[in-house]
Amino acid sequence: MNQESSMNRRDAVRGLALGAGGALESAGNSPEYQQAARGLPPLRITNVKAILTCPNNIRTLVVVKVETSEPGLYGIGCSTGSLRPYAVRSAVEDYLKPFAQNKSADNIEDLWQSAYVSSYWRNGPVLNSALSGLDQALWDIKAKRANMPLYHLLGGKCRFAVDCYAHAGGRTPEELEQNVRRYMEQGYRHVRIQLGGYGSGHLSRNAHFREAGFGSPEDEHMDPGPYVRATPKAFEHIRAKCGEEVELLHDIHERIPPLDAINLCKRLEPYRPYFIEDPFAPEDIGYFHLLRQQTSTPVAMGELFNNPHEWTGLITGRLIDFIRIHISQIGGLSPAMKVARLAEWFNVRTAWHGPANVSPVGHAVNAHIDLAIRNFGIQERVEFGEQTREVFSGCPAFRNGYLFVNEAPGHGVDVNEKAAAKFPVPRDHAGWWRQVRRADGTSVRP
Ligand code: GCO
Ligand code: MG
For residue 401, how far is its CA from the centre of ligand 1 (angstroms)? Predict the structure, then answer.
């Protein structure tokens, strides 16, 4: 805390007390007085803006900067995830900004609750992402004011660092093995294994829809049979070659019919996966109780969830083992902490979604929560490319398979707006998510 701001605080207390004509009791009723008396002058939100950037040509990252009435005091929040960056920008600048401007930056929960219902219709990916930017920025500001790293405000550390899993891929079991070994040599104890891309589309033959001119030429092809036959063989190979110690994870990515997913989870049980992710589409969560009756393979779910109705039943019914929520998709840190606390009572662990379409700000927030909650499970991680680190300073660092947060006050990550502008959103950004089809052209989720 610098001298100037502590003087501001003293002046604020004095000014408020004097302004009330010395009648401290009546001044003491006002929230401004109560804050000033604690040593914190009232803080107002003065500006809310969305920053879009695409470093390393990965996914468009959207972060929100919230400026305050204290000169130089601002916070940054992550609004990345939705593949609709311009819609998120509009939600931030056309709706959240006028809503939040001039309101108190102090009462995060109250602001979250009122912003959440300010659109009446709620819980969609675009509005939730925008809200997350505001929410995380306000937590950043609060931790900066407290002069503490964010995890301290969440209760302090439950562990010294955050254990992570890396993504290994390979078109053949042998290629996959090489990549698993590479991560094991770097110290990773948890590795996700995928034979090729999600659903191993390279194993599917005869994309008849293409010959028939059905769909778009860039559509991908994937049939369940080759994938569900090859995946247990890949697990068998990796277990045989890489040993029993490494924990193996896998993402079905909702690409196969529910009963195929249940059978696959049963067939993978002998290889002791750490978790199998997204066996079903969010639309099919009713299948989880059937899966539970069939196999003890641990399951992870939730990266697409937006609405509390999607996760409360799965957690309280003990139908999943890891909750994979993409934190900006549910509206930020405030709701994520509630999910984590609910899950703790049911012994469901967290595995927050952490792919390339989470900004470094979002990765830092994930990690601060991971440090502070007892029921943390594992964290998905990505490399931050050189351009990403040019735009975002203070990115979390990886060592020996662990992630370490920056210990600066707040979540520790800042954005350089000039550098962000150097990497504009490419024109073909909408085409990043390709449609997958079965041989006959039927569309596959997602
Ligand atoms: C994961 C995810 C991602 C998503 C991506 C969609 O578990 O990491 O499934 O890879 O596919 O975030 O844009
Ligand atoms: Mg996934």
Answer: 20
Checking DSSP bridges between strand 190-195 and strand 436-437, what pairing results, if any?
unpaired
- Residue 309 annotated in active site: no
Predicted pLDDT of residue 35: 65
Q: Which ligand is nearest to the CA of 192?
A: 1
Ion ligand 2: protein residues whose beta carbon lies under 5 Å: 251, 303
Instruction: Name the residue of 59, 62, 251 whose CB sits within 8 Å of the most ligand 1 atoms, as the mutation to test its pocket.
Output: 251
Whether the CB of 197 sits within 6 Å of ligand 1? no
Q: Which of 371, 310, 382 is nearest to 337 (CA)?
A: 371
Domains of the chain: 1-40 (no CATH), 153-413 (3.20.20.120)
Residue of 197, 229, 231, 258 whose CA lies nearest to 436: 197
Name the residue among 400, 404, 402 with its Cα closest to residue 413: 404
Please name which of 433, 436, 438 lies closest in space to residue 224, comparing C-alpha atoms. Answer: 438
Instruction: For residue range 219-272, list pLDDT tens digits in order.
Output: 999 999 999 999 999 999 999 999 999 999 999 999 999 999 999 999 999 999
Mean pLDDT of the chain: 92
The CA distance from 73 to 41, in Å, is 13
Q: Are strands 299-301 and 322-323 parallel, antiparallel or unpaired?
A: parallel
The two structure tokens encoding residue 281? 């589409």
Ligand 1 contact via 329 beta carbon (within 6 Å): no
Residue written as tokens 């468009």? 60
Least confident of 35-49, 201-215, 277-291, 306-320: 35-49
198 is catalytic: yes
Helix (H) or strand (E) holding 67: strand 61-68
Ligand 1: which residue has its CA nearest to atom 1?
Answer: 355
Confidence class of residue 41 from pLDDT cuts 50, 70 and 90? confident
Q: Buried (b) or exposed (e) across 234-270, using 16+ Cβ within 10 A?
A: bbebbbeebeeebbbbbbbbbbbebebbbbbbebbee
Percent of the residues in the chain that have a pLDDT greater than 90, as a whole number: 86
β partners of residue 410? 149
Condensed to tens digits (0 to 9), the pLDDT of residues 139-175 reads 999 999 999 999 999 999 999 999 999 999 999 999 9
